[in-house]
Amino acid sequence: MKQRLPIVLSVTALVVAVLGVTGLGEAALRVVPFATNAGKVNGIQASRIPTAGKLLALNRLAKFPKSVLPLTAGPPGPAGPAGPAGPAGPAGPPGAPPVGGVAEVKVVTDTDAHSTNSASFVDVPGATISIDVPTGQTARLDIRYNAETACTGGSWCSARVTVNGTEADPAAGLDFALFAPGGADWVGASMERTANNLAAGSYTVKVQYAGVGGSTIRLDDSSLTVERIRLS
Q1: φ, ψ for residue 212 (rounded to 5)?
Q2: Would the pTM count as exceeding 0.70?
């Protein structure tokens, strides 16, 4: 052992001498300072979480965490181009008719024949119309009635129109002759009446007929029309 110690020391000294004068030795000497600076960029350390004085690494989505982004919104950008027009919407409800205009028209017709010899007025079957005046409005009703008419015997045959039981204008009663005997067997007779300044509400329009002086009145193929004209 004592004989080998001088040999070991001699070899060690030789290796140190060789490394000291070669590039390999110089590279080895530079490893230590490089390793101690491996976690820095220009002397600034990196970090995975926001830390003062350190570089922040991007997350797995290659983005910075929201905590390091500014919280205030920037100014709005310019408006984009207009998009295409959408489909037309459904039609709205009809508006109120103008004052003085026809707001509603109702019509009933009848092809059956009816007759009476009553000396007082009675309802003509099927010649009835119900109509409403809306809330907040007033109206006038224009009423037209026509029918094939025959009148036999007696003096004359009369007819009238009532609105909720009140005779419409002109309120002539039995004095109005729709037809009189002595002429053609059948004529197309007609009459027109009005009911003015009706307040909001429901109204029933009826046609009535009568035979004066023992006459018999016969009606056929009739038509009743009621127009509601808005007054206010």
Answers
A1: -95, 135
A2: no
